[in-house]
Amino acid sequence: MGFESAVVNVTILKLNCPDAVGLLARITGFIAASGSNLLDVSQYTDTLAHWFFTRLAFEGGRAGSDPDGFRRELAVLAATMRAEWTLRPAERAIRTAILVSRQDHCLSDLLWRWRSRELNIAVESVFSNHDTCRPLVEREGLTFEHLDFSPDHKAAAFEDLAEKLRARNVELVVLARFMQILPDWFCREFSGRVINIHHSFLPAFVGADPYRRAFERGVKLIGATCHYATENLDEGPIIEQEVARVEHYHEPDDLVRLGRDCERLALARGVRFHVEDRALVHGNRAIVFRD
Amino acid sequence: MGFESAVVNVTILKLNCPDAVGLLARITGFIAASGSNLLDVSQYTDTLAHWFFTRLAFEGGRAGSDPDGFRRELAVLAATMRAEWTLRPAERAIRTAILVSRQDHCLSDLLWRWRSRELNIAVESVFSNHDTCRPLVEREGLTFEHLDFSPDHKAAAFEDLAEKLRARNVELVVLARFMQILPDWFCREFSGRVINIHHSFLPAFVGADPYRRAFERGVKLIGATCHYATENLDEGPIIEQEVARVEHYHEPDDLVRLGRDCERLALARGVRFHVEDRALVHGNRAIVFRD
Amino acid sequence: MGFESAVVNVTILKLNCPDAVGLLARITGFIAASGSNLLDVSQYTDTLAHWFFTRLAFEGGRAGSDPDGFRRELAVLAATMRAEWTLRPAERAIRTAILVSRQDHCLSDLLWRWRSRELNIAVESVFSNHDTCRPLVEREGLTFEHLDFSPDHKAAAFEDLAEKLRARNVELVVLARFMQILPDWFCREFSGRVINIHHSFLPAFVGADPYRRAFERGVKLIGATCHYATENLDEGPIIEQEVARVEHYHEPDDLVRLGRDCERLALARGVRFHVEDRALVHGNRAIVFRD
Amino acid sequence: MGFESAVVNVTILKLNCPDAVGLLARITGFIAASGSNLLDVSQYTDTLAHWFFTRLAFEGGRAGSDPDGFRRELAVLAATMRAEWTLRPAERAIRTAILVSRQDHCLSDLLWRWRSRELNIAVESVFSNHDTCRPLVEREGLTFEHLDFSPDHKAAAFEDLAEKLRARNVELVVLARFMQILPDWFCREFSGRVINIHHSFLPAFVGADPYRRAFERGVKLIGATCHYATENLDEGPIIEQEVARVEHYHEPDDLVRLGRDCERLALARGVRFHVEDRALVHGNRAIVFRD
């Protein structure tokens, strides 16, 4: 719900752990005892994997007035649950880097959503293996950095990129139609923090040139998939998918055109879910508490 | 989730009340203390109306072993919250009456979902102002009752119908394209227990002959709306809606054909949400915790 | 458009051939000269394959009053175009066999659409490798035939089935969740006349158990695909696809439930397109002139 | 199909007239005789209104080599059919003015599609009753003109606007969330050339504040409608509609956010259909030959 970042002093807790009796009661009891008012609770128990997932938004209380103390006490509680968790003020923008190649439709869409504050991100920099999108980025007053990803320089470029992401404490990397395959070490280091848009409804058409292959297969629906990048190309946890109906008269170029709208929407929604702490990964599945 | 009625000894609590600090903690704490294991928690706070809604599914514990005792204690807790609530075993089928006129597509679809146990209902009877659907109903081994709703007999027919619904403790009345307007007293008496399917995406095309009017307006989308019936025709709380794309070449008869699929789906889903205690009404809005 | 089978004396011509200048002018000129009134013209030129496709619906004229003479003259014209074509009165129902296993949701849906005349088919027989669906079929006054497809009898069963299809001049075979793989010779003999429903959005999840695999992959959309059966399993020309959004809380059983509605809709539409001569196959793609 | 403006020397004919026998044969015969090659033919007969609509795309021939001569001969043919028609080279961009108020999401989207050549328009100017969007427009190298639409100046502003549109031979006016009601004379003068985006699925929620009203009504689907502006507010011929599913937890601000994506898509598609001569208006209905 949009109110979370509008209301002052809202905190978001995201947590997952092995399932057990009374987990939600303990967590909500803890929050109530700290004087906060729960605004939104999402909870899901994977009964096949026996795993518990929750996201809570709450306002005021010690989480706002004494965040460090609150965090320490929460850590004690979470440890008893063997939980992974994150806690952060809703209003804080996520430090984000965008990676792009030549095509600018996703980038352009993200920039609009950033500028209009629909996405609560701070764009630290836009990196690219081409110079094509520089004007689009610089006219927004943002930094554009061209890195040389040609075969001989690719390894160094990824080292350079990673160093810059670390130096700036980048929390999220968005691959907005970035047409380079990430090295495994990069995927591992930034695991859970790299979001990609693939231009097909995965797992159909993994890999290159999906629209051409969709045309050849004669599908009646095309799509786009927003997912976390992992070492296995196009196989990371899926956050969001979008489809569009196509007809026999749509040629590959038409699929590209229709697909762009799917890509824009799926990526924007996926980034939003991540930025608002709505996406929780477990194994190769993403639990998404939509809004 | 489908598991709820599959698992033995699952209880569903549906509750709404004025918002306050710590409500969910108190309720989940109460359930945990009773020895039940929470399977699913849905919660929503209407921050504009300051109203709290929740649905909880839990297994085992005193709710199963001592239902009357559990209910008495819950009543005490709920009273402190000024809450409206219902509590029931998930596996119990809802006693349901279906009202129908001549068209059988929604009826036929509901009967399939009943027979295949997709919908956890017990069909007490099918009532109609026509005899058309009798064979379809009787071949399922169900009771079909023809009532005379002609102008002179309509008032008596509704009295008769209500009497039968009371006598059989019917909990849900589904208007599966029943083309008679319910009297106000009937809507009031069975408030929250009558679900209608209207053949347009409300609030567009309230009233008669929506497909003809949709054709004349030249809309590019038609739809169907599943809603609780109230005294105000086609204005009750909306549970579910479905749409289909139409083109200029679709004539009114085509809209009727395409609309049937929307009607079937919207009604089946709406009934399912009600039957699984996923729909909570407040004012003229229906909170629907989907699955 | 629904009017075609309603209007008396409507003829449908379906034709495809190598592209050339003036094809549509010649065909429509021929029809106009024969005294028919064109009701509907669909035309598509595949500019990559240089192939021309058309479907024309027309009323009256020599096609109605002297069908054999009309057909002979059309054959002469079509030969000059090296065209494949079919010609038939719109009102004639297509002789159809339905093959089914244990699950009855697609069968049940098709029977409703047949009974309500939404689908202009004549159901010659329902064949099955199980006896489960017999009551559903026989209560409609239709023939149900159980064939033994157990490993030792499978080859003979398909021979038997084919013999029966030939004997009854069956024009269309609908695999309504028939869980046996067709032998190659059968696919070849009935090529272009066998329609299958696969319970995934192809080409994702070819083969067995697609819902389980969709769950494991964590997709956010599931679907169903209606296609012509060919020797390559699940790889024939796609006629129609349908998708439904799913969430993390949907377990494999929920996907099965949600998928059933996709399967019903995609199969019903696909059969309709075939029956109304709206689907034209070229290579592995189906040109579908929708209505 | 995208190829039309890509291929050299393509002409588009759009035509509608009273229905009669042999119309399409005469038109396609005329085009074939002129030496053109038909690329795409769309045809529709409104059998209720007895009206014939067609759109033809063809390459080469006298339409390209002797356009004035071709036009004169076509005029003779069309006169015998009492047809309204337009003829133009596919590659010529449509001279377009965009009107906008404070919200820039539709404008921003249209500018991206113009810049990327997805929409074949030439943006003559952007007019506004506010200065908010000036930077967005001027950074594209386009003209932004602020007109004073305050109550005392509104009449003059519309005169001024109309004068500018006439002076620049503007062929299309796009109201991209322009929040001023057009005077009747303006609608009449520019009839068929003004496209509006309304932020609801018409005919639901005609007029002001549709998202607030949608929230209050508790709808489960919101939408946007792209239509030709006429003297009757929000009642002109509908070109395109788009919907999005909403849930109970979506507050009015969320509906606004979700609705923006519907508005962008419906407007972009509607403008595209007009610009490619795919939209033909008859009475209050728009025939749209999609691609």
Order of strands in the sheet with the most strands of chain A?
7-6-5-8-9-10-11
How many domains of chain A, as an integer? 2
Overall residue-averaged pLDDT value of chain A = 95
What oligomerization state is this entry in? homotetramer
How many helix segments of chain A? 10
What is the CATH topology classification name of the largest domain in chain A?
Rossmann fold
Instruction: Please report the total strand number of chain A as a whole number.
Output: 13
Secondary-structure element series of chain A: HEHEEHHEEHEHEHEHEHEEHEE
CATH class of the largest domain in chain A: Alpha Beta
Head-to-tail CA distance between termini of chain A: 6 Å
Question: What structural class do helix, strand and pairing data of chain A support?
Answer: alpha/beta
